[in-house]
Amino acid sequence: MDTPRVLIVEDEPRYRATLVDMVRVLGFDPYPAGSAERALHMAAQTQYPLAIIDLNLPGMGGLELLEKLHADHPTLRAIILTGYGDLEAAQKAIRLDVVDFLTKPCPMGLLEEALGRAWRLAMPSPTVAPPVGSEPVDDPQDQSHNEDTTSLAALEKRHIIDVLQQHQGNRRAAAAALGISERKLYYRLAEYGWKD
Hints:
The chain is of the alpha/beta class. It has 8 helices and 5 strands, in the order E-H-E-H-E-H-E-H-E-H-H-H-H. The protein has helices spanning 13-25, 36-45, 62-72, 87-95, 108-122, 148-166, 171-178, 182-192, and strands at 5-9, 29-33, 50-54, 77-82, 100-103. A 5-stranded parallel β-sheet has the order 2-1-3-4-5, sandwiched between helices. Helix 7 (171-178) crosses helix 8.
């Protein structure tokens, strides 16, 4: 069976690249687009069962894009990303059968869960399992798993450092954005040899 395609619509190039890496590590085939207009063009050429869409895109917004995609591809399952909570957008997203509504930057574990749910909804047969590994994303220092752990550790390191830089080195804010404790963040940074 082919690897499930995921349309990733994110205008910020660095975060788009991070999402592409995360989606690939989780066993899906990422197809990035930097705008809603580009995503519509891509969706006219190829069918995507799954999509990750930034809510706040320049030009056409994420929810408007999702409405247009659903008009042509009603079985598409989408995850919406936003930099901040927006109740009105969340309510509209629910009406559009959005699988999940995640705040950026989302931890890899939450994205893994959302993609797994989306894939199960897109492929309702009980015999079809999501391509995500049967084992949960574990501590990257545990080398007892296969070699994907090494790439996952590198991805996690880059993601944590990117989030820390987005918060101008504020570890408390970065830990909150990552959904981990400050203690765990300090532990990870010490492992990476991170210096202020």
